[in-house]
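Hi all, posting the design record for the shared folder.

TITLE: backbone redesign
STEP: 1 of 1
STRUCTURE INPUT:
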């Protein structure tokens, strides 16, 4: 009887990223904010961590190919016990993205960033604000004119020298000590006056 063949899984640098995310409690933080309501095995926090690992894995995969990316990774060690690559379906990830949108992803991002700054003991006394634009090609379905929450792809001042193309604007605020981004928001393409640095509600989740 032949001996069973060993199964090789690759951690690479992803173990460091996953360990840091678990240390600061970001998956649990997200789960407290947007608890999973479906029967899917993976929580929203676990799905977000999976997307972070995929994005930093130097091999970005579309949603329906996430399971293939994680086939060679020790998923239970990176995400959560009993989690398998087959659990990371496009339906699970899509529901997580929808839940983040409904919860206001900018507020969620800021809350997590503030928690990280506190966890690392950074003494932040100032912040740096920058706004940049990204042009887009092709035709996009535009939201109704009276939808004030929709990001509109329109022409405006183009920092990448494409004033003929529609664009979207990204606003980013970083703290001064380690340069960590603490607030991020996508805006409509026309240049806008920066809003005051927002503060998260006092009812933000305890980890």
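Okay, here is what came back for every position:
SEQUENCE:
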């Amino acid at each position: 009887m032949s001996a069973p063949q060993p199964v090789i899984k690759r951690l690479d640098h992803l173990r460091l990223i996953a360990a840091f995310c678990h240390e600061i409690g970001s998956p649990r933080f997200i789960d407290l904010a947007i608890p999973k309501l479906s029967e899917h095995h993976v929580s929203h926090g676990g799905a977000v961590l999976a997307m972070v690992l995929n994005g930093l894995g130097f091999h970005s995969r579309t949603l329906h190919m996430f399971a293939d990316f994680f086939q060679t990774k020790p998923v239970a060690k990176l995400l959560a016990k009993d989690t398998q690559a087959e659990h990371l379906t496009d339906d699970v990830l899509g529901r997580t993205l929808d839940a983040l949108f409904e919860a206001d992803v900018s507020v969620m991002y800021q809350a997590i960033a503030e928690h990280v700054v506190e966890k690392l003991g950074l003494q932040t006394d100032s912040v740096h604000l920058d706004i940049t634009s990204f042009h887009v090609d092709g035709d996009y379905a535009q939201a109704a004119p009276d939808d004030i929450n929709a990001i509109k792809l329109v022409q405006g001042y183009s920092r990448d020298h494409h004033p003929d193309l529609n664009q979207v604007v990204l606003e980013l605020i970083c703290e001064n000590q380690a340069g960590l981004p603490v607030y991020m928001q996508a805006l409509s393409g026309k240049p806008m006056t920066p809003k005051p640095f927002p503060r998260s509600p006092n009812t933000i989740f305890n980890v």
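COMMENT: Residues 105-119 form the longest helix (15 residues).
Let me know if anyone wants the other runs.
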